[in-house]
Amino acid sequence: MKKKLSLHMIGGRIKRDWDLYLLLLPGLLWYLVFAYKPMLGLRMAFYDYNVFRGFEGSTFVGLENFMYFLSGTDFVRTFTNTMMIALWQMLIVFPLPIFLAIMITEMRNKFISKLTQTATFLPYFISVVVVCGMTINFLSPSTGVINFMLQKLGMDPQYFMVKPEYFRGIYTTMTLWMTAGFNSIVYIAAIMGIDPQLYEAAKVDGAGKWRQITAITLPNILPIIVVMFVLNIGKMVKVGFEAILLLYRPTTYETADVIATYVYRTGISNGDYGLATAAGLFEALFALILVALANRVSKKISETALW
Amino acid sequence: MKIKKSSQLVTRNEKVFSFFMSVVGIIITILSLYPIYYVIIASVSKPFFVENGDVMFWIKGFNLESYRQAFAKDGIWLAYLNTFFYTIVGVMANMFFTATMAYALSKQRLMFRKFFTIMTVFTMWFNAGMIPLYMTFVNLKLLDTRTGIIVGFALNTYNLIILKSFFEQVPQSLEEAAFIDGASNLRIFYHIYLPLSKPALATVGMFYGVSRWNGYFWAMNLLKDDSKIPLQVLLKKLIVDQVANETEAGIITMDSLASPTTVIYAIIIIAIVPMAVAYPFVQKYFKKGATIGSVKG
After folding, report:
1. Position A262 confidence tier, pLDDT thresholds 50, 70, 90
2. pLDDT of residue A65
3. Of B127, B136, B276, the CB nearest to A284
């Protein structure tokens, strides 16, 4: 049992370790100013907020902003798109690095193994602006390399960027290219950590490669897969909106406009701070609930959880 | 990261499997590198060939006019300089705020340690979001200031946790010995922990460096003055907005040495080069950081 701290003791400890608290101070202040103080700003969601007049001069509207957002057509569209893009991320962008990691560790040719790892890792360093610029250029109907290839195969050039039906595929492929190598690192490290004797034993028992992967590799890295999944689920809901902001056009809003881009347009571009904050708060709470749920489920099925 | 030792027992099945994996690996390697390769060859080819789809695997009509025009773009040098400034000064601020706090949080004797730790981790799961954060910058008069960019993004919880878990692994005995000799917390931090933690500091520094170098969203929204914008914001104008309009393609003749498209490719390469140069040096740190960070969550 911990002893309860008396005021006197607290004073004594602060006196003894005053410089330790001094070290804590800058970071603590930073969190207060740039993480917790903005949370007070979430009040804006309940106001018809006017920047020039502040909270005193703005009218309190209760849940009106939420009602407006949730009942509008923008909500159906942005919510569906957010979920769809998150789903694509979960089904494609999340699992493929695991396969990539297994592949890289299974190669006996160390040179090719290293080469694959280095090559897939490289795009992670390129900024999202440049990657989006490349994507847009490659997909251009008149000068894009993708369309040249299609034409060589006898197909008509397509204006990919303005067609809503292509957006999710483009975005997912782009994200995969950028992040697969980086995301595979943690799985590679986990696979390296598996006791080699397990494989030896399996081989003696006559297990083929495929069997070794399903019976040893996958179960052994499952805890990390689960942790990564829970860690990422919040991010998936918040989907890489920086990239979407660069890629989408009014003509692709139908499939590309997510809650975060809606927040950006209504808030920072149009200055409707109350409504934008309400939509943002909805998104943040939704992500939080999903993370908590994923955490619970993973605790049940695999006894691994973040908390 | 060590590659596991190959075992004595190699069956035919394994050889076939490994061969198959290597083939897929080569295909993936090509897919990963081709986009970058294409931009390179297109940027030094004649636009006539590029825009007719004749440049696909090899350079055609080698010339560097696109690069000359790219470097002549308004503000590109200034934006480059700004990015260096934000990256260098920014990472220094990052390291100061992150290392000091991570050290304090790594100490059992810190009162309310648990509370402070939860307070930081909580922000990974829930944060105020874009608009309230933006308003915070407005209220603090940090709009259109370099200080806002440097200080406003001085800490990242993920990196804080990486450093904190590293500091926790340093043997306690070192610290106790120093205490007996009468060293203060500040001295122990500065003279014992920081030198011992160089690999971890480098890892976190790299993470911060890349995000500073590549950051565009907040720079775009917080900085209004063109003389302060970093490269990424300028790049957005030059290579994303430009194509989005899909206008003045102009007439590309056989003799043209540059076109809007090839200039964009040249700009892309100019933007990638510093990172590509740094890449071999930072790769190993990145691997370390990615592993510590995600396992310790």
Report:
1. very high
2. 92
3. B127
Rounded Cα distance, B153 and B192, in Å: 27
Chain B residues lying within 8 Å of A8, measured CB to CB: none
SS3 A59: strand
Burial of B113 (0-12, 13-18, 19+ CB in 10 A): middle
* pTM: predicted TM-score of the whole model, two decimal places: 0.90
φ, ψ of residue A233 to 5 degrees: the values are: -65, -35
**Token couple for B232:** 């990424």
Q: Give every CB contact of residue B89 below 8 A, 6+ residues apart in sequence.
A: B150
Nearest CB among A5, A115, A246 relative to B236 is that of A246
In the chain, the amino acid numbered B286 is: F
Rounded Cα gap, residues B206 and B203, in angstroms: 5
State which H helix or E strand residue A47 sits in.
Answer: strand A47-48
Give the nearest chain A residue to B33 (CA atoms): A119
Q: How far apart are CA A213 and CA B55, in angstroms?
A: 42
Residue A30 near residue B98, CB atoms below 8 Å: no
Subunit contact A145:B42, Cβ cutoff 8 A = yes
DSSP A296: H
**A97 contacts chain B (CB < 8 A):** no
Who wins on pLDDT, A266 or A237? A266
- The fraction of chain A above a pLDDT of 70, given in percent, is 97
Strands A59-60, A47-48: pairing kind: antiparallel
Contact between A288 and A295 under an 8 Å Cβ cutoff? The reply is: no
Closest Cα partner for A306 from B117, B297, B115, B290? B297
Q: What per-residue confidence (pLDDT) applies to B2?
A: 46
Rounded to a whole number of angstroms, the CA Rg of chain A reads: 25
Tokens for A78? 């942005």
Does the pLDDT of residue B160 top 90, yes or no? yes
How many other C-beta atoms can be found within 10 angstroms of the C-beta atom of residue A289? Answer: 12
Residue B290 confidence (pLDDT)? 67
Query: CA dist B183 to B106, B155, B176, B190, Å?
Result: 18, 28, 10, 11
CA distance A291 to A76: 22
